[in-house]
C-alpha cells in the first residue's frame, strides 16, 4: 500500500497561516491502514493544531471529516461537501488524493499534511517496509520474488555490488543486501539458473521515463457523469 | 440497513454484477423473480457499480456513512464509589485469573483515595516499636 508520514506540526502550522477556516480531511484507504492519515489521525491533528501556540494569531477554525478515498474525482465530487466558508483543505491523503482534491475544489488551496513516502508491505504490526517502486516492468518472476529495484540501495539489476558483506548492504549493517536475498531465495527454489540468463538492457519508460503514466481499462466507461438518464 | 442499496430506478439489468471487480455482487433468478445480492465481506467499496449503473440507481452514500452494527453486549462493572463505568465482568475475570488475585472495582481517582485511607488507617501510631 501507499505509506505516508505526517509532516512536522510546525510545517503544517506554517502552511495554514492566513486561513481562518480549514477542513482537515482524512482518507479512508491506504493512509488509514498505515496509521498516518485516517479519521483518527485527522481528529488528533485537529486537536494538536487547536492547542498549538505556534500560530502567530489564533488558530483557524478547524472542521474534520474523512472520505473513503480522496484519489477518485467522481467520488469526491459527488460525496465530499465543504463546510460553508472553508478557505483551505488540509488533506491527510497521499499525493494522489491531495492533487485530486485540488482539481475538484479548484481554486481552493489544498495543503498536504503528509509526506507520501513509498509502497510498503507490513511484515509486523506497525512496521511498513519499502518493497516496490512501481517501476512498471516487474522482474520478480526471475528474482525469487525479491525486488532489486526497491530493495537494493543502488537498484542494481545484475547482481550485488562490492559493498555486499555477509548478506548486508554497505549503507547499514541491518539492511539486507537485496541480491544476497535473491541468491538464497533462488537457491531454495532450485532456480539459480535464472541468474545465468543474459537479459536485454532495461527499458525505463514504463517506470515513468516517458512522462506521467496513465492506464486505461476498456469497457469501464460511463459513470454518473456520463450515463445521464434521458 | 444494508450497505448496498438501490433506488426504484433499478431495473435489474445486472450492469453492476458484470462490472464488480471483487465479485461481491450476484443475482438469483427463481420462478419469475430476479434477486440482486451483495456480499460485504467481498466488497472493496470501489464504487465501480455506482459508476457503471446506467440507471443511476445505486445509492453509494450508504457505503460511506452508515449505521453502527452492534457486535457484542457484556455486563459492565462500575466504580464502587462514583459509579463511573470501568470494565466488563469477563475482563475482570481475565485479569483476576492472570493476577491470581481479586481486582477491586474503583476508578483511578477513588483507587488513590481508598489506597490513601487504607495506608492512613494502618500507619503505625505513636509508641509503635518495630520488633
Describe, in plain words, how this protein is organized in 3D.
The complex is a heterodimer of chains A (230) and B (131). With 230 residues, chain A is an alpha/beta fold. Helices cover 25% and strands 19% of the residues of chain A. Chain A has 2 domains: 2-117, Rossmann fold; 138-197, no CATH class. In chain A, strands 3-2-4-5 form a 4-stranded parallel beta sheet, with helices on both faces. In chain A, strands 1-6-7 form a 3-stranded antiparallel beta sheet. In chain A, a hairpin with a 2-residue loop joins strand 6 (114-124) and strand 7 (127-132). Chain A starts with a strand and ends in a 42-residue tail after the last helix. Chain B has 131 residues and is an alpha+beta fold. Helices cover 30% and strands 15% of the residues of chain B. In chain B, the strands form 2 sheets. Chain B has a two-stranded antiparallel sheet with strand order 1-2. Chain B is rod-shaped and about 95 Å long. The model of chain B has no long low-confidence stretch (mean pLDDT 91). The interface between A and B is medium-sized, with 13 and 16 residues.
**Morphology of chain A:** elongated
Treating each run of at least 4 consecutive H or I residues as one helix, how many helices of chain B?
A: 5
Mean pLDDT of chain A: 92
Chain-averaged pLDDT of chain B: 91
Counting structural domains of chain B, the number is 2
Count the domains of chain A: 2
The H-and-E topology of chain A, N to C, reads as EHEHHEHEHEEEHH
Shape of chain B: rod-shaped
Distance between the termini of chain A: 40 Å
CATH architecture name of the largest domain in chain A = 3-Layer(aba) Sandwich
The share of residues in helices of chain B is 25-40%
Q: What radius of gyration of chain B results from the CA coordinates?
A: 29 Å
CATH topology of the largest domain in chain B: Alpha-Beta Plaits
In CATH terms, the superfamily of the largest domain in chain A is: Response regulator
CATH structural class of the largest domain in chain B: Alpha Beta
